[in-house]
Every structure is written in structure tokens, then in C-alpha cells.
Amino acid sequence: MLGLTANQFAAIGIVVVMLALFVWDRWRYDIVALGALLAGVIAGIVPQENAFDGFSDTVIIVIAAVLVVSKAIARSGILDRLVRKLMRGIDALPLQLGILTTAVGLLSAFVKNVGTLAIFMPIAIQVARRSKRSPSLYLMPLAFASLIGGTITLVGTSPNLLISTVRAETSGAPFRLFDFAWVGLPLTFAVVAFLMVGWRLLPGDRKGAPSAEERFSIENYTTELTLPADSPFVGKTVGDLEKSGDDIVILAVIREGGHNYIPSPHWPLFAGDIITVRAEPGAVKQLIDEARLRLDSAHDLAKADDTPQDELSTVEVIVTASSPLVGHTPQSIALRRAYDVNLLAVSRAGKSRAARLQSHTFQVGDVIVLQGWESTLQETLSVLGLLPLADRSLSLGKSTDGVLSIAIMGVVLVLIATKVLSVAVGFTLAALLVVLAKQISLKEAYEAIEGPVLILLGSLIPLAKSLQSTGVTDIIAQHIAGVGAMVPGYAAVAIMLAVAMILTPFLNNAAAVLMLGPVAAGVAKTLGYAADPFLMAVALGCACDFLTPIGHQNNLLVMGPGGYRFTDYARLGAPISLIVLALGTPLILFFWPL
């Protein structure tokens, strides 16, 4: 460390310790980043008055708003339904992967790639189960497609947003919304094409860790749904309705003033029919959305209540031996009137039943779905002696018009692209509109905002600026420029891209881009080249961790369900990294010349 000033030595030491703690992974990344920021303040390399400037950076606002809009789109289920329809009847694995990865890649350009993966993981697992294949053949390709798809737009991935702020600081203007598409879009299609054949590099016999649903296995729920006049299934048959969903069984049709019929598949359906359905909660929700059925009891509380500021909540509970419900029916105990909760669905192990929900006699061990007001629901569960199960993201009784969320997103993207609104203002407006339009509740909106990610970014931004102010980035840039001076310009860009791809697997991608962004600008200046190709190389490299499960949370999300080992990522990821390096470099140089 000869020739370094005390401040430079302190800055490098703090960063090295921070990186080591990131790799060690014993403490959460947001705690490590915040600790590094405070260490920088104590060491005097980050001025106290600027310590928390990172939290006022517009990139924090953009990421928070994008997460809210992404949650609203995911919650609507509209994209889920479209992909399920596309996948119906397709059994060939390459075609299945082609559809899934293309959808994930393109959607990740506009919806945060973590949110996109969350939408498609259950679909992929269900496709794998139906095709009698291991989920390991599907999930890693999905994760990788979400990463490369995020490189298409400014808001698709955090590195693009962060490198845009670096460009604004170095050249006075940030990157625009679709500036990244010239490189990201061709690369996305190239990676998707490779994944359609590259799946052979993955282990096909792995069993993933059981999900919450699998660890607590229960029979399907019995739920009552009403067929409204505007449903597309009015006039169709019971068999048509069963075929419209996954593992849907119609147990009974109630009509003519309450007569309960056990129907055959050719029975026609009429408006006003009450249909008793047995299926898992996700399939029931899918059926409600696709067939436009109505879960009538889900609306009764909302109609009767005079306190709209409270929010309806849905919970899955088990009936215990001490519950006053045991031996009673919802009707005999006046469940809705006395306790202000709705019974939405019932499950009893080993029993298939077609009786009305209101005449169901509760027994110990019944698993039921209740809906009630958020402010009083926990107290009600305690009074009723009900034990809440682990959160299974149950969405019965919640419905939104997914088209509205997508329309809001589309209008905002047009306004941003035409420079009517800035990125920060545009996405904040979109987040506000999806909440006001009740596409997502205020509680869900706040839950969608990932606090740890915002703490990480807010802490790293001032720390990254301290590396510039102390001259550390200049020293690193000089060393890379020394190598770059000995090779042609395209090779220098390729080196920058490779450095970013190598560093990112051992860091959070945000940390990597904040460190390397100023370095890339410094290298370009030293070599006499334009900064944009080098900045693009950093953004692309930091967004593309295909080698390990730790560089990006999407890779980590699929590790358990896919049953992957650490080394599995490099088996499929190394060829993809070479594709990004080989195609990404000329694409960057073609659209962003030196």
C-alpha cells in the first residue's frame, strides 16, 4: 500500500472489510453496508453532513416505486393467466422453456426482475410437476432469463439505474429509459435461445426443498363460487369449467332455491348457479379470475362495514381442540354476525364433501380460510381458538383488474420515454395510482418496498463517492487503464465487462456497480475514449451474475426449490457469461462507439 494517503488507506480498508463480510454472509448485507458507511464517517472519509445523502438519491425513490408497481401487477394474476394459457398442451421441454424464459425476460424489462421471477416460479414448478420432470430443469433458466431481461431498460435492474446516476455525475446527463435496449434486447433473445438447448447442462434428477405447502400437506379446499351472468362459462358445461383450471373438481351445483345436485360433466351451467369446487387455493384463485366467478362471501363484510379505512385480510387457520367452533356450523354459531369474519373455504384431510359451507360442522384439525378486518382479526382468531398457519400468500377473496395496473404502467412508460416525466416522478406517480385504484392495498404497497435493499443502496452511495473524493477510484482506473493501453479499444471494453462479471458474483450487484462505475469513467478518460461504452460494460457485467447463487437474490431464490448446488450455477452460467462477453462487447461498441 506504498504511496497511499491515510484517507486512501482507510477507504480501501473499509471497502475490503465490507467485501469480505459480504462474501462471509454471516450478517445481512444491509447491516454490513450501514456499518461500512458509519465506519467511513468515523474515519473521516465520509463527511458527517453528507453521510445520509444516499437516501435522498432519486434511485432510491425509483426502486421503491418500481417494487410497488411490480407487486400490483404480480398480485393481479393477469400475466400468470396468460402464460398458463400459452403453456396448455405443450409438453416439449425446449418449447416450454422458450415460452417461460421469453416471457420472464421481456417482463423483467419493465417489472423488477425479482417480482417477475416470483410470478413465474409457481408456474414453472407446476409445469414441471405436470410434465413429470424435475423443477431443476426449469428454475435456473428462469432466474437467468430474469437477469438478462432486466438489462433491456433503465428500470429493469438496479445496475442500470445506478450507472445512470454515475453518467449524470460524469457527463451531466443520465441514460434514458430505453438506451439499454440496443444491447439488452438482442442479448436477451440470444440467451433465451441458448437456454432452450443449454438445459441439458443441468441435473435432471434433483428434488428441491419442500415448499411451505408441501411441508404442511393438506387436502384441497372446498369453496363455493357463484356463476354471474357475465361469466364466459354461462351456457357451457361442468366439464368445460373443470378443464379450464389445474386439478379442479366440481363437487356440486346448487340451484333452484338451494337444491344441491351432484353434476355430470355434460351438465350445462346457468347464471346464478352456486358451484362447489374442490381445489388448492392457487387453482381456485385462477378459476375465479379466468371464469369470472364470484366468491360472494368475500364481499359481504365490505358491504356491511362503515369503516373503509380498515383493510380486509385473509388468513389460513387450523381448528384446535379448544375452539368453540368444534361441533358447530357457521350458521349455528352465527360466525359472520357474532365474530365479523367470513368463511371462504374448508379443507378436511381425507374427506371430499359437497355440502354447503354454511352447514359444515367444524371438527378438530379442519383447515379453514377466514376473511376479516385487519385491526381485529388476530384477536378474533384467539377468541375462536384458531391457530394461524405459515403464510402461504393466500389470495382468496382478493381481486383486482390486472389490466388497469398494466395500463397505468404503460402510460407512465410512454410519458417517461417522451420526456414528459422524469423516471423518478413517473414511477412514483404509477405507484400512487395503483394504490388509489385499489390494485394493491396500502399495507401491501409498504410490504413490497424492500427496506434492506434501500438501506444497502443508501449506505453505499456516499461510500462510493468517498472512493472518488479520496482518489481511490483514480488509482484503480490507472491500473486498468495501464492494461487497456496495451490492447485495442474493443479489448479494453471487453476487459471492463469481464472485470464487472467476475467481481459481481462475490458482491451485491449494487456494490459492484457503485465501485466500478467511477473506475470505468476514469479508464475511458485516461485512454481518451468516450465514457458511455465503458459505463454500459459495467452495467451489463454487474447485472449478469450467472456463476454463483450469491451475486443476485434471484439466483438464491431458486436454489432451494431447484435443489441446486453451488457448482451447478457455473455449469449453465459459464457458457452464458461467454455469450454475454462475446456478443455484448460488439453490441456496446456498435451502438456506443469509442
Task: Please render the helix and strand layout as text.
Layout: H1 6-24, H2 29-43, H3 58-76, H4 78-87, H5 93-107, H6 113-130, H7 136-149, H8 158-171, H9 181-198, H10 212-215, E1 221-226, H11 238-243, E2 249-255, E3 259-261, E4 274-279, H12 281-291, H13 297-304, E5 312-319, H14 335-339, E6 341-347, E7 367-373, H15 374-384, E8 386-388, H16 402-417, H17 423-436, H18 442-448, H19 451-469, H20 472-484, H21 489-503, H22 509-527, H23 532-543, H24 553-562, H25 566-591
Antiparallel strand pairs: 1-4, 1-6, 2-3, 2-4, 5-7, 5-8, 6-7
Helix pairs in contact: 1-2, 2-19, 3-6, 3-16, 3-17, 3-18, 4-6, 5-6, 5-7, 5-9, 6-7, 7-9, 7-24, 8-22, 8-23, 9-25, 16-17, 19-22, 20-21, 20-22, 21-23, 21-25, 22-23, 23-25
Structural notes for this entry:
With 594 residues, the protein is α+β, with helices and mostly antiparallel strands. The protein is 57% helix and 8% strand. It has helices at residues 6-24, 29-43, 58-76, 78-87, 93-107, 113-130, 136-149, 158-171, 181-198, 212-215, 238-243, 281-291, 297-304, 335-339, 374-384, 402-417, 423-436, 442-448, 451-469, 472-484, 489-503, 509-527, 532-543, 553-562, 566-591, and strands at 221-226, 249-255, 259-261, 274-279, 312-319, 341-347, 367-373, 386-388. An 8-stranded antiparallel β-sheet has the order 3-2-4-1-6-7-5-8. Strand 2 and strand 3 (259-261) form a beta hairpin. The two termini are 33 Å apart.
